[in-house]
Amino acid sequence: MKRHVDFLSTLYLTWGAIFTLVALAGFALAGGAAAIATAGGPVRMASEMAARLTAITIGGVAAIALVWGALHLWIGRSLRKHLPSARLMALGLAVGNLVLIPFGTALGAYACWVLLKDEGRRLFEGA
Question: What is residue 38's DSSP assignment?
Fold first, then answer.
């Protein structure tokens, strides 16, 4: 079961890195929309408001993705150390991942299977 927990840790680290990259791309897009909002042009009023709304929306989604990615990276490292708190937090994130079809669903189901089995539970009790 240790092999599965180590693999799950690698999956959490990979998933966290992907979300961090998505967040960085989102921040770049939000910065572009903010630049459009501050630039002058012939059709200024409507495009300025739309660009600001776009920058705020994409920036908010990017911030959420950054937090989600950072949590996965932190928990992925903690799973390798077999910390009991990492198991509970990984299960919490697994439930949230279940709605992210298709890859998050597979990760969440695998995490639940690994961390809820008796052998997986015993691995974290010894830490």
Answer: H
Name the token pair of 74.
Answer: 């932190």
pLDDT of 65-88, one tens digit each?
Answer: 999 999 999 999 999 998 889 999
Residue type at position 43? V
Classified as helix, coil or strand, 82 is coil
pLDDT at residue 25 greater than cutoff 80:
yes
pTM of full prediction above 0.90: no
- Judge whether residue 56 has pLDDT over 80: yes
Cβ atoms of 66 and 17 closer than 8 Å:
no
70: tokens are: 């950072």
Q: How far apart are CA 125 and CA 109, in angstroms?
A: 21
Q: How far is 9 from 18, CA to CA, in rounded Å?
A: 14
Structure tokens at 50: 């739309």
List the helix and strand counts (H, then E) for the chain: 5, 0
- Burial (CB count <10 Å: 0-12, 13-18, 19+), residue 1: middle
Angle at 90 between CA 99 and CA 102, to 5 degrees: 25
